[in-house]
Design goal:
three-stranded mixed β-sheet; 53% helix; six-stranded parallel β-sheet; 9 strands; alpha/beta; 15 helices; 10% strand
């Protein structure tokens, strides 16, 4: 990256870092199970709620206990269950129209990160009916309280239940963009391991690697705080100790509960300290090819960490020690290498490949520009990369024979 752009990026990031204590970050209040939701709605005077979820969640019957609890409490519930794997502008518009038509007073996001992001974006459109979502992309473009928002994650990965962001796909433009503002932080997060037990092993793995990516990118960035460092370290410890267990035995409620906590903590970390080039590349791939976000993050993470080189060695060594893959006395470069190798070994155990088969060489220049635009100057990464350097990382993801 040329020196002028580097200076601009670091100056922008420094201003954001100094502003962290002044911004209205907050943690959602956590609820232990879905049966606690009706009581919260009643306390807030909500007689009708929109449930935003996806077809897979509905098919697996995961919402039945919640719907039963709402019915027993006399709370009306409209259901939007058409959220696609990467939430689209059209899905958000359909959900917002249903909210208005049914006179809803609150929003329940139920499912993985896509469903929770869709629920957040529905809330944006409810309070900003005259403002297209594309005009809300970026930072602090909403600036208006959303309806009461409750998130029920069924995967331990996205952290969307605690973050300021919702990522939406514009299919017509073949592009993903993030809407980031403080009103998008849910008021409540339901960390109920019972709704995660039926998650298939591969999705358990990729969503867990998504949470790991959040924790790692938040920790190694240049805008950390004491709280975000502690949250990220704890998340990494929990993921390394529990992801293999949940992958091998989906009914292991202790492992599932620990992974939900890890995802929540990683979300708390990156919503303040941001992410990095892993996410910028993954979002570009998701926007064009619909590559699942957690899968993309898992594949990209070791490549980007290697590219950071010595700029990330000290912090990666600290993560390696927290994860139990390096000793306290192991020199930082070797400990960092051990951590990266441990990630690759996890990907191997979980059947996650090292390439993105959908990726086409001809698309790489445009993808790299999208990733550059998303990441720079916002993401406080250890080492700044421009579009040309990002394009070289994309090429390492090609699945060419």
């Amino acid at each position: 990256m040329n020196p002028v752009k580097q200076l601009w990026c670091r100056a922008f990031q420094a201003v954001l870092r100094l502003s962290i204590p002044l911004l209205p970050y907050r943690r959602p209040e956590t609820l232990p199970n879905v049966e606690a939701v009706p009581g919260v709605l009643k306390r807030h005077g909500c007689a009708s709620v929109l449930l935003v979820t996806g077809p897979n969640v509905s098919r697996r019957g995961l919402t039945r206990p919640l719907l039963g609890a709402l019915k027993e409490a006399g709370i009306g519930c409209a259901v939007y269950d058409k959220t696609p794997p990467n939430p689209t502008v059209s899905a958000v518009e359909e959900g917002a129209a249903l909210y208005r038509a049914q006179g809803c007073q609150a929003i329940l996001g139920f499912g993985g990160g896509s469903n929770l992001d869709c629920a957040k974006a529905v809330g944006v459109r409810v309070v900003l009916p005259g403002k297209p979502l594309s005009q809300c992309a970026g930072i602090l473009k909403v600036r208006r309280p959303l309806p009461l928002l409750i998130a029920v994650p069924t995967t331990a990965g996205s952290g969307s239940e605690t973050t300021i962001a919702a990522v939406v796909t514009d299919r017509s433009a073949r592009h993903k963009y993030a809407i980031s503002d403080f009103p998008l932080i849910p008021r409540y997060a339901v960390l109920d391991p019972a709704v995660t037990v039926s998650l298939p092993p591969f999705l358990t793995a990729t969503t867990g690697m998504d949470a790991l990516t959040h924790a790692v990118e938040a920790y190694i960035g240049r805008s950390t705080t004491k709280d975000t460092r502690e949250a990220a370290l704890t998340a990494v410890r929990l993921i390394f100790a529990n992801l293999d267990r949940a992958f091998a035995d989906g009914s292991d409620l202790e492992a599932r509960r620990n992974l939900l906590e890890a995802s929540f903590l990683a979300g708390c970390a990156f919503t303040k300290s941001y992410v990095g080039y892993v996410h910028a590349i993954a979002h570009a791939l998701g926007g064009v090819y619909d590559v699942p976000h957690g899968l993309a993050n898992a594949v990209i993470l070791p490549l980007v960490l290697e590219r950071y080189g010595p700029a990330a060695h000290r912090k990666l060594a600290e993560l390696a020690r927290a994860a139990g893959v390096a000793e306290e006395t192991t020199p930082a470069p070797q400990a960092a290498a051990a951590f990266i190798q441990a990630i690759r070994a996890m990907n191997g155990r979980f059947g996650i490949g090292a390439t993105i088969p959908e990726l086409r060489r001809a698309d790489i220049p445009a993808l790299a520009r999208h990733a550059d635009k998303e990441a720079n100057p916002l993401y406080p990464v250890p080492l700044l990369l421009d579009a040309d350097e990002l394009a070289r990382l994309f090429k390492r993801l090609l699945d060419e024979v």
